[in-house]
From TrEMBL:
It holds the Pfam family Peptidase_C54. This is Cysteine protease. It comes from Cuerna arida. Cysteine protease that plays a key role in autophagy by mediating both proteolytic activation and delipidation of ATG8 family proteins. Belongs to the peptidase C54 family. The keyword Signal does not apply. Its EC number is 3.4.22.-. Its main location: cytoplasm. It comes from the Eukaryota. InterPro entries: Papain-like_cys_pep_sf, Peptidase_C54, Peptidase_C54_cat. GO terms for cellular component: cytoplasm. GO terms for biological process: aggrephagy; autophagosome assembly; mitophagy; piecemeal microautophagy of the nucleus; protein processing; protein transport. Transmembrane segments: none annotated. It catalyses: [protein]-C-terminal L-amino acid-glycyl-phosphatidylethanolamide + H2O = [protein]-C-terminal L-amino acid-glycine + a 1,2-diacyl-sn-glycero-3-phosphoethanolamine.
């Protein structure tokens, strides 16, 4: 995320990759667009070696995630048939109302913050992007990174100016907002370092977010529905603009223009 073009998640790369999602440089990005852009940029992030999955239609297809995260045996391990799990970043774009959040989703949203795999929510208010990291009662806690500051490089953090620059990548305070004042377009995010953590996340979702007394925030399925066109996390890039348009239309996020670029 360093502020230089060569950094895989720099503002430069995010803005340029946004063109593949129909966003010109300088246009606002909503939660879904940000998720799709980061998914594409993650392919070039060899250092982190993560699997980045954006769930379609409020649905986590478990076997799609397993196929994405499971690497084949490494050299010398062919006979042992050892599977290697790539750490997973899972993002689920959601539309939780037309102009305001439907209160039926509130308990499920609050429950998502309690999972140890939670990375929080990408969201905000109209024309103002925020990063939500938790909740207290009916208030959500958010970080607001929109601060103008000097460009700089962190490098090894061996000198005072590098320490100061590193601190500029972190918010010094958190704020609160009533949960119903959030824009209804959000993206719920999770990180699963191991396959066991992913399985634990699925169990937590079943136990706390897909229950008879709550409106389901997401759906869990072993396989895709039959009517879905096969489309994994790399297929949209391979199929071109037509597939990208179809892919975008299937998201429950139609208020991207109400947000600004995170950066």
């Amino acid at each position: 995320f360093e502020d230089r073009r060569t950094a895989p998640y720099s503002i430069h790369q995010i803005a340029l990759m946004g063109a593949s999602e129909g966003k010109q440089v300088g246009e606002w990005f909503g939660p879904n667009t940000v998720a799709q852009v980061l998914r594409k940029l993650s392919v070039y992030d060899e250092w982190s070696s993560i699997a980045f999955h954006v769930a379609l239609d409020n649905t986590i297809v478990i076997n799609d995630v397993r196929r994405l995260c499971t690497e084949g045996p490494r050299p010398g391990e062919l006979r042992r048939r050892v599977r290697h799990w790539k750490p997973l970043v899972l993002v689920i774009p959601l539309r939780l109302g037309i102009t305001d959040i439907n209160p039926v989703y509130v308990q499920a949203i609050k429950a998502s913050f309690t999972f140890k795999q939670s990375l929080g929510l990408i969201g905000g208010k109209p024309n103002h992007a925020l990063y939500f990291i938790g909740c207290v009662g009916n208030d959500v806690i958010f970080l607001d990174p929109h601060t103008t500051q000097s460009i700089g490089v962190v490098d090894g953090k061996e000198h005072e100016h590098e320490w100061k620059m590193d601190s500029s990548y972190h918010c010094s305070q958190a704020n609160r907002l009533h949960i119903l004042n959030m824009d209804p377009s959000v993206a719920v995010s999770f990180f699963c370092k191991t396959e066991a953590e992913f399985e634990g996340l699925c169990e937590s979702i079943r136990a706390q977010m897909v229950t008879p007394d709550r409106q389901a925030l997401v759906e869990l399925r072993e396989e895709q529905r039959e009517h879905w066109t096969p489309l994994d996390d790399t297929a949209a890039d391979a199929l071109g603009a037509t597939a990208l348009s179809f892919y975008e239309d299937r998201q429950f996020d139609d208020s991207d223009d109400d947000f600004e670029l995170l950066g």
